[in-house]
Structure formats: structure tokens, C-alpha cells
Specification:
The chain is 18% helix and 27% strand. It is of the alpha/beta class.
Length: 346
Amino acid sequence: MDKLLKSDYYYDLPEELIAQDPLLKRSDSRLMVLDKNTGKTEHRHFYDIKEYLKAGDCLVLNNTKVIPARLYGTTLDTGAVVEILLLKRLDDCTWEALVKPGKKVRPGRIIDFGGGLLRGEVLSIGEEGSRHIKFHYEGIFEEILDKLGEMPLPPYITHKLEDKNRYQTVYAKYEGSAAAPTAGLHFTEELLDEIRAMGVKTVFVTLHVGLGTFRPVKEDNILDHHMHSEFYQVTREAADEINATKAAGGRIICVGTTSCRTIESSCDESGKVIPGSGNTEIFIYPGYKFKVLDCLITNFHLPESTLIMLVSALAGRENVLNAYKEAVAERYRFFSFGDAMFIKSE
């Protein structure tokens, strides 16, 4: 395989279908069920997901927590207003960040946030124009960030988020993400309890969503696209549960592309999940053979994105694009606060 075209993953999306606000109740979102083998679709609501799960299945969820990663400050020497988006913690005080406008944030510049509460020293320019910034402060960084930072909503969401917890899953635990694992936003505690009562296992893995979420595929040939690394962790308990489910013939159902990328990064060639942590640059596109995952709960993704390519690797490009066309016709809500899809296999 020497060429896969980005344009093959384009679809036309009316702007009014991009969800700007979360629904009042998480599980009231719509659910399209796509059979990955036949391409057949069903139209349900997310609370109906229970009807597609069965005892012996295992749900894999990403328990990362989004940090209020967007900061606004001014350069000390010129007073220029700059916007910082924290992406990845490099050490206790140093972060990789996106900056706007980039030309105002050269190495050596000092940026002031909150009238001296926090100061950032630009150390160097990283990959694709990102910056490495060392922060100086007194107290606890997370508390300062909670005071000064804003939730880093994607650029296609223009409405102000009234309740910042709605951009967190109900099971978010470990801070470190620059974006939410949005497939999990549809779950309520009550729905998860009902699913567990059916005999479905739930396990948690961690992947901190970073730079790759904000970077479009620029190359026409997607094989030339480079994924940025993201930190992940799989506990012994999670690995054992996933492996036991596979051995017993149960299905591994990932909640979101991040959970999928985590377990596919942490397994050996036979599909056995190995506990541990590290950084993954895994890029899943058609031709990829899944070693662990059987089914996927996911949202509707941007045209020509790495995420629609991952979904196409599982369900087939034609099936996925036909389903997306149907979702547009049925006026589904798209992207982070939008509706969900369950890609099933029997």
C-alpha cells in the first residue's frame, strides 16, 4: 500500500449540524448503530445502548480529565495579548503549548498571566510551531490553572460553555488532557450502573489527549501524516480483565477512539494486553488489523480527520461514509457535543 488519499475521507457537512451545546441530559443524545459487516444502520437513542450489550462484554473507558488548558496573558516587554493552549506536561514546570499569535511568542519572552499570579518563560520552539514554556509561580499549579484557565473547547464550538463539567466524562479522574474523550460524554452514572448490573464489565485506561487532536491532516497522501505522541497508561487490573474477557469469548467494546488507540498500543501481536505506560503515536487507518477491539462507541468526526480514518479501518470506508451521509440527512448532531455511533459486530 503506497497511497491513501485524504480526499477519500471527505463528506459534506452543513454548519448548522455542528452541535454547539451539550444536551440537558447526557444519555438523551441520538445513537446510530452501524453493523460493520453489512453497513446496515439503525436509529436509536444513547440510553438504548444497553440493548446492544450483553453479559460477558467488556467496556473500555478512558478516565483522563481535561484541564482548563486555555490561558490568556500578556508579554512583559511589549504588552501584546497572547493565547496559550497547554498540550503536554514535559516536567513539573514545563509544558508544550500552542500559542497565538506565534510571532509574538519567541524564545526568551516572558508572559504574564493573572497580574503576576503565573508567569511563563518561552524556552524553545517545538514541533510544528508549538512552544516549550517553563512556568514560575507560588503555590500549586493546578489550583492556579483552575483559577486562570478556561476549558479548551474545539474551535468549531463558538458558544460559551455554562457548566465546564459537561466537557468532562462522569468518570474523569486523572488530569492531563487538552480535549475530552467525547464518546464518553454520553454516559451517566446511572446508565453505567445499569450496564454493570447486566454482567458487562467496565475497565478504565488512561490516554491524555494532546496535540494530534488539534492538527488537521495536511498531506494529500495520509501515509505521510505523522501522529503526535500521547501519554497512555494501562493498569494490571485493566489488562487482566480485558485478556480474561477475550479468553472467555466476550467482546471488547471501546468507548472512544482514545480507548481504542490505548489498548491497540499496549498489546502484543497475539492481542494480549500488557500493563504499563508510555507514549503512543499509533495511526489507525484502513488496512489496519485490530488485535483487541471488537466494537466501538464513538462520535461523528470531522471530514478528512485521523478519527474518521480510524472508524473506516474498523467498519469500511464506504459503510462509514454512507452512514455519515445518512446522519446528515437525518439531522444528527456532529462532533464533540453531538450524537453517537455504535459500530457493532455480532
